[in-house]
Amino acid sequence: MFSRRKFITTSATGLASIILLPTVNSFANENSQYKRKSAKLKLRFALASDIHYGQPGTNFEVNTANMVKWLNDDHAKNHLDMVIINGDLVHNRPDLLPEIKTQYLDKLNVPYQTIPGNHDFADARVWKNVFNYEDRYTIDHGDTAFVLANTADTKGAYVCPDNSFLKTSLDKFADKKIVFVVLHIPPVKWQKNEGFLDCPETIDLLHAYPNVKAVFHGHDHLLDGVRYTNKLPHFFDSHIGGDWGTDYRGYRIVEVNEQNEIYTYQVNASQNPKLNSNKL
């Protein structure tokens, strides 16, 4: 049924494969159901980024409310274990972080995590004051773990993630079947003059742990697919707000089944334009 798939198999503490499904219209199909090799999932989560709440000249309130509705609808139909908001929650206005938290994010019907982007102008102190955790942390979810780290400073300048923190975290999770890393700005420039970071030590670290199965990024609103460093996939999730990017607004879904197969696909939540009109 799916015409475009890519399989990545690595031998870590357990077999894990990543299956890339085509971009789909989550809410164009009844009950938002998709055919999978296994209907039993042990983990399902969403990643959204680049809300840019407070950006002048944009419908930031509508965009943020839409995101909450889309994710709550997805959770009601298919269940989400968590939502990760991967940076640029606000647009150069850290004073608006409490507002977006209490008026929007706290209305998600699922646990959520956040990490700063370059437009949040935030460090560990700012982030802990609003969200009660710092700008770099880990999540332990059974045999799956998450490592999240900041990639910008309080002036919006890009900075490589704290490699000491990454190494300590990856060492701690060395026995996990699957580790996902979440960084707003990618630590590698695939093309010259690209607005990403150049952090070769970070890339070497990520490649050194075979149970690191994927890295998730925001930042570039035009990207909604996958790029690779060696065999490690780096996924993007389009954008929720802002005044530029893909024509549609959406988010990424990641599913892990009981065989540790990882399914991921991008959701065209705004349905503008329609990326896939097939009925599944």
Describe the model:
This protein is an alpha/beta fold and 280 residues long. The chain has a single domain, classed as Metallo-dependent phosphatases (Purple Acid Phosphatase, chain A, domain 2, 4-Layer Sandwich). The strands form two sheets. It has a seven-stranded mixed β-sheet, with no helix packed on it. Strands 6-7-8-9-11-10 form a six-stranded mixed β-sheet, covered by helices on one side. The longest helix is centred in the N-terminal third of the chain and has 19 residues, at 60-78. The protein is built from five helices and 13 strands. It comes from Mucilaginibacter aquariorum. It holds the Pfam family Metallophos. Residues 43-221 form the Calcineurin-like phosphoesterase domain.
Task: Provide tags for this entry.
single chain; 280 residues; alpha/beta; Purple Acid Phosphatase, chain A, domain 2; seven-stranded mixed beta sheet; six-stranded mixed beta sheet; 5 helices; 19% helix; disordered N terminus
From the helix content, strand content and strand pairing, which structural class follows?
Answer: alpha/beta
β-sheet strand percentage: 25-35%
Q: Main beta sheet: strand number and arrangement? A: 7 strands, mixed
The number of helical runs is 5
Report the strand count: 13
At the fold tier of CATH, the topology name is Purple Acid Phosphatase, chain A, domain 2
Instruction: Tell me the overall shape.
Output: globular
What is the mean predicted local confidence, pLDDT? 89
**In CATH, what is the homologous superfamily?**
Metallo-dependent phosphatases
